[in-house]
Specification:
By secondary structure, the protein is of the alpha/beta class. Among the domains are: about 120 residues, Chitobiase/beta-hexosaminidase domain 2-like (Chitobiase, domain 2); about 400 residues, TIM Barrel. It contains 19 helices and 37 strands. Helix 4 runs parallel beside helix 6 and helix 9 packs parallel to helix 11. It is globular and about 80 Å long.
């Protein structure tokens, strides 16, 4: 059960909305026929009658069709909907409620898909909205589905065996070469860090990190002695390092500050994970000899703050944990249809209008609500932005930790926030009589009659690429960003310009487009506008010594034949140093091998594959799981399973999480030796449509990100290159077993406290019923299964599962960590 937000406001003219509540109960869902039914309850908790008309209730939903005789539903734009009463709707007396049955045209895969963000607007005050108390619940119809998931998990978990922590590798991600010795070294408050001048920043950061659990160690530059020694040696690879822990010192050798930094992160993971809980008198570091370097130079995490916002403190916390696990790129998704999140000093409307969501009739003061963000601006994750000072602080923080921040300015689609912000600017200046200035940054042709719907159902979210003002706008944004990076002393080599999901129908009836096609011989069709646009963006960036990054579409060309339309790698840009994040390898789309085709054709490719790296996808089919599922399901094993240079080999599920028909990927293009040189790294996006709190963000982030870090840093595992299938499976199970033991006994305990602690996901128990008894297991060793048999929810004091439980009436299982925090419960009756 999930309870929404209620806000009080003076409402002298109308029924007090604080006394109105709504509840949705999922009655049925049909996965095969894609339908569901709800009971929608409207309750009058006040002392006045709730009127039969004169109001509209707004909300957000992925469902496009509702059927009810009492209410009329309409899609406004995006996921923004409304309903109002028909003549069959009756007034609701004080203290009473009504229930209305709603039929829809979509199945519910998990609770996060249920409509949200309900608020009421009185017809005579259209600009004011009042959030309603909201509750959603679902009946036991999903119980059978959850038990199927639990049984599948039980089978998967049977390969997991407990490994003593003493036998586990103590550095994470797994180093290239790692040997434990019988030596040990104790760090005390009097330990000194002796460092080459080149590594002074890294030494000081490490000293500061230890301050929270020991004391801030003294750093001495260009001096020698016994302690922690950082030595520069040009023979070590760029991001590589050597680390040795002996009885009388800890020695680090690196050729670059980045290498020294990663060595110090390894040293931090050698510290007992539980030590981060509180101050320590000393830190015992066990002896090791390590020679290490990353597999890929690009080890990225994409943070979407546009759909739902995360504040500066959360970004800094993310940078702390990315650096711990040696990830070196933060791809910052700063704008989309639903929000613009960074201050651009030259264009203040971008954040004045584009960073806020709330009730509006025209998007002039703020954007419409999305993803349940409600009626009021500035209160929930629908609103928010980084000021210039915030952004510069983030850049400085990242740079000190050897993390490159790639800003994404999503264009030409997914750009509604920018478009509406510039519309507001246009109207303001037109009222002031400044027509030329008003038109200077317009992003749409005011006379465009084109009609379209984006994948997310927006009808007005694509920039007109034929307008000169579009490029004036983009140059201004780029130049302001360049200035902020320079002020921060942060490197800027590229800007990501998005480029994905532009729908059919755009630009077809734009006078500006038709005029361009007459003037420019290279633009013969609407398709050619794509290449025209990215050619201009490429030139814009080249003039500023930057290169273009984007989603895969920036490197693709449409080919139309009598047999239909298909895509090829665009030869026009193959040698232009375009960096493409290739996301679409969804089975059955024909794009399973797209990353390899683009790499083979000469494009730089960051493997950002939906099937393995989209962290916003739900962990599994359990109805209680947060997340989307349009590209399948992503549990911890998916990034861990990934074979970068042969990922088709290990593709096992379709986009519904079912066993893959291998015929789908037969004959797909393999990666060539030339193509391998163009695979520059791995990236995991966390899109934020369902992320309405930092707790949800961290739940989807961890422990999945540990699998991403392992695959991006560590060398190709033996199981990935073994051709004998039974032997490969044996090697995989062994590696997986070691990985989940390291997670459960070292990294998750560390994440309880590191950087303030993370609310990572604790898995649901795997379980089956056999011979009248419930058998259970858990995915991650080190976690504890507790249970009850009296119908109550298990607590941290409930019985620990140690043997099959006789099933009499019911058994409820729940997994706990060492701190007493639990995951979702599983009820077996």
């Amino acid at each position: 059960m999930f309870v929404g937000l209620s806000l009080s406001h003076a409402q002298p003219k109308h029924f007090d909305a604080d006394n109105l509540s709504v509840k949705l109960t999922l009655v049925s869902t049909d996965y095969q026929h894609k339908t569901s039914e709800f009971l929608f309850e409207i309750a009058n908790n006040g002392k006045q009658t709730f009127p039969a008309d004169g109001w509209t209730i707004y909300f957000n939903s992925n469902i496009s069709k509702y059927e009810s005789p009492e209410l009329k539903f309409e899609r406004i734009n995006g996921d923004f909907d409304k309903f109002y009463p028909t003549d069959k709707f009756n007034a609701i007396a004080a203290g009473s409620s009504i229930q209305i049955r709603l039929k829809t045209n979509r199945e519910m895969d998990n609770f996060t898909e249920i409509p949200s963000g309900f608020y009421i607007v009185w017809n005579d005050e259209p600009e004011k909205g009042y959030n309603l108390k909201f509750e959603s619940k679902y009946l036991p119809i999903v119980q059978a589905k959850n038990l199927v998931v639990a049984a599948a998990d039980f089978t998967k978990n049977t390969v997991v065996k407990d490994i003593s922590e003493t036998k586990l590798t103590k550095i994470f991600p797994t180093p290239q070469n790692y040997t434990e010795t019988s030596a040990s070294y104790t760090i005390t408050p009097s330990t000194v860090i002796f460092t080459d001048k080149a590594f002074e920043n890294e030494a000081n950061l490490f000293a500061s990190d230890l301050e929270s659990l020991l004391e801030k160690l003294v750093v001495k530059t260009n001096e020698t002695g016994k302690g922690i020694v950082l030595e520069k040696n040009a023979s070590v690879s760029k991001e590589g390092y050597k680390l040795s822990v002996t009885n009388d010192h800890i020695k680090i050798i690196a050729s670059t500050p980045a290498g020294a930094f990663y060595a110090l992160q390894s040293l931090k993971t050698l510290i007992d994970p539980k030590a981060w809980q509180t101050k320590q008198a000393s830190l015992l570091i066990k002896g090791v000899d390590v020679i290490d370097q990353p597999r890929f130079g690009f080890r990225g995490f994409m943070m979407d703050v546009a759909r739902n916002f995360q504040n500066k403190q959360q970004v800094l916390k993310v940078l702390d944990v990315l650096s711990l696990y040696k990830m070196n790129v933060l791809h910052f998704h700063l704008n989309d249809d639903e929000g613009w999140r960074v201050e651009i000093p030259t264009l203040p409307e971008l954040t004045e209008v584009g960073s806020n969501r709330g009730q509006t009739t025209n998007d002039k003061k703020n954007l419409v609500p999305s993803y349940g963000s409600g009626a009021q601006t500035g209160l929930l994750t629908g609103s928010g932005y980084y000021s210039k000072a915030d952004f510069i602080e983030i850049l400085k923080y990242a740079t000190a930790r050897h993390i490159t921040v790639i800003p994404e300015i999503e264009t030409p689609g997914h750009a509604r926030a920018a478009i509406k912000s510039m519309d507001a600017r246009y109207e303001r200046l037109m009222k002031e009589g400044k027509k030329e200035e008003a038109e200077r940054f317009l992003l749409r042709d005011l006379n465009d009659k084109s009609t379209y719907r984006s994948v997310q159902n927006w009808s007005d979210n694509v920039i007109d690429v034929a307008l000169p003002s579009t490029y004036t706008f983009l140059e201004t944004v780029v130049d302001d960003l360049v200035k902020m990076y320079a002020e921060a002393g942060a490197p800027l080599q590229t800007i990501h310009f998005g480029g994905d999901e532009v729908p059919r129908g755009v630009w077809e009836k734009s006078p500006a487009v038709l005029a361009l096609m007459k003037q420019n011989e290279s633009v013969k069709s609407i398709d050619d506008l794509w290449y025209y646009y990215f050619d201009r963006i490429n030139s814009l960036l080249k003039q500023r010594n930057l290169y273009l990054s984007g989603w895969e579409e920036i490197g693709m060309r449409k080919v139309r034949t009598e047999a239909g339309m298909y895509y090829i790698a665009n030869p026009d840009f193959a040698n232009e140093n375009f960096h493409t994040d290739v996301w679409n390898n969804v089975p059955g789309t024909g794009n399973e091998d797209l990353a390899y085709r683009l790499a083979n054709a000469g494009y730089k490719v960051v493997l950002t594959c939906v099937t393995n790296f989209y962290l916003d996808l739900a962990y599994n089919k359990n109805f209680d799981e947060i997340g989307q599922n349009w590209g399948g399901y992503v549990d911890i094993n998916k990034p861990f399973d990934f074979i970068p240079f042969d990922y088709l080999k290990n593709m096992k599920e379709d986009d519904r999480g079912n066993p893959l028909n291998r015929a789908i990927i037969k004959g797909k293009v393999p990666l060539t030796e030339t193509g391998k040189q163009n695979i520059i790294g791995i990236q995991a996006p966390l899109w934020s449509e369902v992320i309405k709190s930092k707790e949800r963000f961290e739940y989807l982030l961890f422990p999945k990100l540990l699998g991403v870090a392992e695959r991006a840093w560590s060398k190709d595992p033996e199981w990935a290159t073994e051709n004998d299938a039974p032997k490969a499976e044996q090697l995989y199970n062994q590696a997986w077993n070691e990985f989940v033991n390291i997670m459960g006994k070292r990294e998750l305990p560390r994440l309880n406290y590191y950087a303030g602690g993370f609310q990572y996901r604790i898995p649901t128990a795997g379980a089956i019923t056999k011979n009248g008894k419930v058998e259970a297991n858990v995915q991650i060793p080190g976690l504890i299964i507790r249970y009850t048999t009296d119908g109550t929810e298990p607590t941290s004091q409930s019985k620990i599962y140690s043997a099959p439980i006789t099933l009499k009436k019911s058994v409820i299982l729940k997994v706990f960590n060492s701190e007493g925090r639990s995951g979702n419960s599983l009820k077996i009756e």
